[in-house]
Amino acid sequence: MATVKSSAENLTLNADGSGNDILFQSNGSQVGSLTAEGVLTATSFAGSGANLTNLPSATADGFFASSGLSAKDLGDGLHIKTGDSGLGSVNSNFDQLIVENDTTAGISILTGTSNEGVLAFSDSGGHRGLVRYAHATDKMSFATGDADRMNIDSSGNVGIGSTPSSLYSGYTSLQVGGNGTLWGQAAAGGSNNFWMGQNVRAGTDGNEKAITTGTSSAIHMSGGSIELYCSNSVSADANITKRYLARCTRDSDTTLSMRIGNWVANGTGQGIKFQADSNQAWVGLETHLTTSRSLMSFVNGNGTVGTIATSGSATAYNTSSDYRLKENVDYDWDATTRLKQLKPARFNFIADDTNTLRDGFLAHEVSSIVPEAISGEKDAMIAEELYVEGDNLPDGKNIGDVKVAVAPDYQAIDQSKLVPLLVKTIQELEARITALENP
Length: 439
Fold this sequence. Notes:
- By secondary structure, this protein is mainly beta.
- The chain contains four helices and 34 strands.
- The longest helix has 19 residues, at 419-437.
């Protein structure tokens, strides 16, 4: 049995608890009901002001459908649909909220101008991941493990594991951790600058500065050149002083060069320069000192075995000759007989179109007399080599094709090795002349 009670403040309608509804009728027709469980349904509600008008069916499908949105047809969750994208189904792991349209679709998070908009990923342990936008500073943050991992400031500078430093106007950067940086000019252009640095950043005053106290290093690219440099230890935020390790430059369309150290080319620097153009390659060594300095050393398993040194206005080409490196020293041997076996000749090289005559030797004619002066063997050939399984094949090449063609392996001579024989022969001749002059 249903009852109706009234008091000074309330009107109570009470169903009998058996599941019977309280029915609402108008002109003899039912317009709504309220079940014993508290579920209210109605065909319409009339009213004004704050009152709802034409309240739809109290179901999600009914509400969104009568709000001008199509009833859900994808997934089991909330489907907000203003147009049909044509997709027939979605992954059941991601169907709790679906926003669909046949053109652009989106979700807006609206906040106050000094507040944050947050998309949070949580579980029973609380917040684990966040996407946060701070409207007061126009900064976007991404968090994992409930800690910020990446930040993007209002200028577009990105910090991974850090807050990006402020930069010189017109530059943007990516900062990784506490001291790794990538930064460059925002504008496009072949002559504009780009850096990759360790403990160095672009300051707001246009100078390169240390992020923290200590040494730093960087690679700078601009206008077809690459510079590698390091700096001595300086304080945090202090300007760094570059000490160049290497600089690679495009000197022209046909000329490239690489400088190591402080190559100046006028005798005031100290460094090396490699240069190549369409005609030749070139290597230069520079020191500002005029005292004896070794500019190149040759080292093998026995240590330093030779140097190229400068002193004053001269260059010396040195090979090992210390007595502590030698044994079986003999000063009594016949040089004249061996020297007389040498066959000095005049010739021109086949590749020389001018046929310029030169003085010298044929290597194989010297090899049996002063073997240490000759490298290689007479009539030696470079053996043919074929491409085999596992080789990197150039375009158009196959396994079994010629990789290295048969070619002469030419002999060479170091004529300085003939000097001891010449000196000893002169001494022997001098002794003979002396003996003849003083019978």
